[in-house]
């Protein structure tokens, strides 16, 4: 792990975010990040729980401030990074790490995660099968690995799968050559992010029916796949229908398909979703 990582590792409950993609606002955080290669983040609420890096030449996991995570959550993520613990997980004490043999490298399964999220949807009053049948939207699986694709207009790290990230970079350069600026508004958003949107709106008194009119149910958003992008234009508000009248939309309408990006929700789409001129999704080229 001596290289500078460019990929986010996405496990069931935690993810590992490359430290270079983050901007620390405090000096003590900056000092910690200088030694770190990854920050370990809890997906449910976005809180950082620990650091993975080298201190005094030794590869370690260190707790972030006074936070902790369980062995059951940490070990699968370490395995995705090709690592294992050499010490027991105990409070804030640094944990030494070792490299795993290649045959023990692991990517997470999806079975338990899917069942867990179906239970959560049911608890919110959403029947996933009925919802899928009525909207025509399929369940979307989160990728285990996402590539750093620069920053969005809010200076947040932008994450996409490798092919989509590379196509986005090429498309943005091509648009710039035509004097058109394409802003990324958002890319990958996981189940937990979407679930948080629903929880906050429910807390404000909205009903599930009201929320579903403007937000896809957790598990059904194309943003979960790491292939979808919300795109904007400088000076224009984010995710508004007025984007249709910008030079960016006119350019995308003519050229996006050349880079594998397609408008997901045109007017009168079969899913019953309102026209979203800003939402584009990358699809691998189909064989001829």
Automatic annotation (TrEMBL):
Domain spans labelled D-alanyl-D-alanine carboxypeptidase-like core: 162-284
One GO term (biological process): proteolysis
GO molecular function list: peptidase activity
Signal peptide location: none
PANTHER family assigned to the protein according to its UniProt record, in alphabetical order: D-ALANYL-D-ALANINE CARBOXYPEPTIDASE, PEPTIDOGLYCAN L-ALANYL-D-GLUTAMATE ENDOPEPTIDASE CWLK
Name of the protein described by the UniProt record: M15 family metallopeptidase
Organism: Pseudomarimonas arenosa
